[in-house]
Amino acid sequence: MTNNTLVPLPDGDRRGTRMTRTERRQRRLAERRHAPVPVEPEDDAETLPDLREEAPAPAPPPPVQVFALPPRVQLAKTTSRFAHIARWSFGLCVILPAIIVAGFYVFMASPQYATNSLFSVRGSADSSGAMDGAGLFAAAGGSVGTEIADSFIVQEYILSRAMVQSLISEANFLEVYSRPSADPYYRLDPTIPIENLVKYWNMMASVEYDLETGILTLTVRAFRPGDAEAITRKVIEKSEDLVNEISLRAREDSVRAAQREVDLAETRYADARKAVAAFRGDTQEISPEKTAETRQSVVGNLESEVAKLESLLTALRSTMSDNSPRVIYVRNQIDALRQQIEAERRRVAIADQGDVVNDDQVLTERLSRYEELVAEREFALNQYQSSYETLEAARIEALKQQRYLSVFVRGEAPEEATYPEALRWVAIVGVTCFLIWGFCILIAAAIRDRIT
Q1: 208: buried, middle or exposed (CB in 10 Å: 19+, 13-18, 0-12)?
Q2: Local structure of 139: helix, strand or coil
Q3: Given Cys at both, which of 203, 253, 380, 383 links 269, Cβ 3.0 to 4.6 Å?
Q4: The pTM is what?
Q5: pLDDT confidence of 164, banded at 50, 70, 90?
Q6: Coiled coil located at which positions (predicted)?
């Protein structure tokens, strides 16, 4: 506001105008400056000249200019073309879609009944108590990690094509969701391809997994309460079959390698036993070791007899001549015993350069062969025992890896329709359209201001 817009008022109009504090203060100062100063008379009027002169008349104070603001200028109300377009576009882009969606859910949408089921994938706990803290922590971590992975597998399987095909063949999926009483938007067309059936199933069913608690929440919607319950039961049944199959496969994988080792060790042990039995049948003796011990004892006995006879021969020679019959008899008996000892030793020892003895094979060869077969049998037996222990440990570990589906809230037939959520979708459509409309209006306004 400038001074040109101020209008002076005459003095007569000051009464109806309210003066400010500054104006009142300036007025009082002006009156004090122009007021006459009083002079007191002295007693000796004769000696002092009369210095009082007639004071000139005070000048009247200047009139105070009081200003008032002019009345507010009334501007003419005009609406631009852009404002008209914005209003019409708001009605068409925001209000109209919200009304259409609200009308659909109020007058056309069919009620949908939903079942909620809660289940989780659990494993067998280790109750042996013979594990230290680190091992228990590692085992618990591995078990929890496996359960989480299996839970995600079940979640993806429920929403997969395999589940849709199972529901089509075993739960009348197409008939349940293509009933004539359903509204056109949510009604299923049975002729659509399997990929679109999977998308429709993902719209009518949802699976949420809570990572903290490990609980899977299954929600299934249908146009009838009984249909929702039947679909839910079939989904849970197929999920249980999947978890059991995963658990069985894990147990078989962990045991298969150990079982293969046991089979190889068992075959080796059986072959070793057969070889020992065949050797005994060919040699006609149970154990060459026992035979060698027996022959060694025979040789020892013969040598002791020879020692006795030699003592006797020495005693006889001291009293008889060498040609006496007694001496000759004892000498011949000693020679016979020595020949027998040599023969026994030859039967035990290895033949030299093809020297053939009465036995088909000398005892040392048979004994060496027998020891090789017995050693092979012992090694095969130890391997068989070790692999069998490994198999038992693998089976125990496989039992720890067992998984099962624990269902603690099974979805029953609902009594009240909870879908579709009309208010939620109307609000979503309205807010979404409003945000899009506002973004477009801002861009249009910016372009308009740039052009003008």
Answers
A1: exposed
A2: helix
A3: 380
A4: 0.55
A5: very high
A6: 248-275
Terminal-residue alpha carbon distance, the chain: 28
| Chain centroid to CA 122 | 13
User: Has domain 109-126+140-259+400-421 been given CATH number 3.40.50?
Assistant: no
Mean pLDDT lowest among 39-53, 105-119, 357-371 = 39-53
From 216, 260, 212, 219, select the one nearest 242 (Cα to Cα). 216
- Residue 193 zone, left/alpha/beta (φ > 0; ψ -120 to 50; rest): beta
**Residue 406 and residue 120 in contact, taking contact as beta carbons nearer than 8 Å:** yes
In 31-181, at which residue ranges do the beta strands (DSSP E only) sit? Answer: 67-68, 113-123
CATH 3.30.1890 residue ranges in the chain? 109-126+140-259+400-421
Q: Are 121 and 149 in contact (CB under 8 A)?
A: no
Domain 266-351+359-399: give its CATH code: 1.10.287
Mean pLDDT for the chain? 76
Cα 265 from Cα 406, distance rounded (Å): 40
Helices (H), 284-362: 288-317, 325-348
Over 60: is that where the pLDDT of 5 sits?
no
386 or 348, higher pLDDT: 386
Q: Where in the chain is the domain with CATH 1.10.287?
A: 266-351+359-399
| Long-range CB contact pairs, 358-367, < 8 A, 24+ | 361/283, 363/288, 363/291, 363/292, 363/295, 364/292, 366/283, 366/285, 366/288, 366/291, 367/288, 367/289, 367/292
Distance CA 254, CA 19 (A): 103
DSSP-derived secondary structure letter, 213? T
